[in-house]
Amino acid sequence: MLAGHISRSDAQNFSLIPLHFEAASFDTAISFTILGAGIIGVSTAWHLLERGHEVTLVDRQSDAALETSFANAAQISVSYCEPWANKDAPLKTLKWMFSDESPLLFRPQLDWAQWRWGLQFLAQCNDAAFERNVAQLVALGSYSHNALKAVVAATGIDYHRLERGIAHYYTDQKSFDGAAEAAAVMQRFGVKRRVVSRNELLAIEPALSAFADRIVGGTYTQSDESGDARSFTQQLAALCGQRGARLMFGHDIERLDSDGHEIREVRVRDRQSGIARVLKADAFVVACGSYTTPLLKTVGLSVPIYPGKGYSATLPLLKPAQAPSVSMIDDQLKIAVSRLGNQLRVAGTIELGGFDLTLDTPLAKKRCEMLVRRIEQVFPGVADTRTPEQGGDPQFWCGLRPATPTNIPLIGRLPLKNLWINAGHGTLGWTHGAGSGLALAELISGERPAMAFGFHGIDAPVRSSRKGQTPHLQATPPSQRA
Ligand SMILES: Cc1cc2nc3c(=O)[nH]c(=O)nc-3n(C[C@H](O)[C@H](O)[C@H](O)COP(=O)(O)OP(=O)(O)OC[C@H]3O[C@@H](n4cnc5c(N)ncnc54)[C@H](O)[C@@H]3O)c2cc1C
After folding, report:
1. Which pTM does this prediction carry?
2. Are 64 and 237 in contact (CB under 8 A)?
3. So where are the chain's domains?
């Protein structure tokens, strides 16, 4: 049994319902309503359709992937998956609290959920937890990479995919000295990350040559890749529609209603007409990213998912021939750069300060400007880094990473018998998207996904104020469904 998301102290404080994995096979197709059409919800929808189930996909936006899956750093980063929580994180976080440009900014709120999350995070800041969490993240990452390749092969979706690997460059000798140790940890879990000299790095990605005198070395993993999560997700959602899924965009999910044992219905409201609707199904999957937490509160369930705000800037390329095609991680600023066709995407930084999606505050502006400034330093003249006032057209964006204290997503069952969760993918939802959808569809179908991963409510105890149910679903005939 692998480590779950609830610490031992939680286990003593809350009523726990140990649910054990049971094979459940369905003779007839059952109906699923999937709440949330980001990469995770859409991927879940796709794999449930593949297994012959009926699917309704609900989202408040007018299309899929218009929230956190919209403009992320584009990396399929199986190998660079270290969790935020490590033994050095508490001190660094404290130090960083006083800089607007720090990679991780804790902005204290009068919000118990934030402090509780912070305490759970602190409990993960040790070597044992770090290794345990890395093991699961790598396992899900490589399973998911295979799942992504299979979906691409089956559908032919084109999303500016580049299979050129990810390179991590260092500008500081002390940090680079630690790179070998970090690579060794990853290698223990089967990841082929290798340390490379500056010259090797320049051979791998000549676009770094203008910045070469600042680089002291790097690491590289050839098997990683990059591509546009929004484009992929929207095309997959459209294919779900073509395969018969009911796509309900433009609907706010207001609440879940349960009878204490199972979800009876979900209440949604059409954003345009204001008309309220009630959705019934045999089973429900919550995949609402950071908003999973408030939604589950409507049925008294608590999950440790808290928003981690991040920013990106997408810049038109001026010199495509000199732009990188290997995806990058900048160690000093902890930001990532990926090429998407004729654009360069730079993204990063984390702010733990609630559900704040503003882009026009002084802090947000500073963080966005920092991203663009770094692109000009590293790849001078390659992309249009002018501000709108100077005639440029940088596309700034921010999103809320659905973060768990371990960085491990919650994939599995909740303690209401027809309610499943696929959320909390934090910084790696694009990387883990295809596999998380496949894994949940497999669990629902009574199959055990082929990876060493602790599934929520199945391998680990879950927390609830309710009495638990065995994982068994009854199919109702289609005629009885609303
Ligand atoms: C700056 C940044 C860079 C990143 N870079 C990478 C990267 O390079 N690689 C990587 O693997 N990951 C990356 N990520 C993480 C990744 O983008 C997320 O983990 C992933 O998008 C989460 O997907 P999701 O489907 O869970 O959430 P979302 O994409 O947010 O989907 C949830 C959906 O639920 C809907 N929803 C929520 N609440 C309601 C409601 N009440 N009613 C109706 N609809 C609702 C939303 O509209 C949304 O469409 C990055 C994230 C950020 C912010």
Report:
1. 0.91
2. yes
3. 1-85+124-159+226-304+404-482
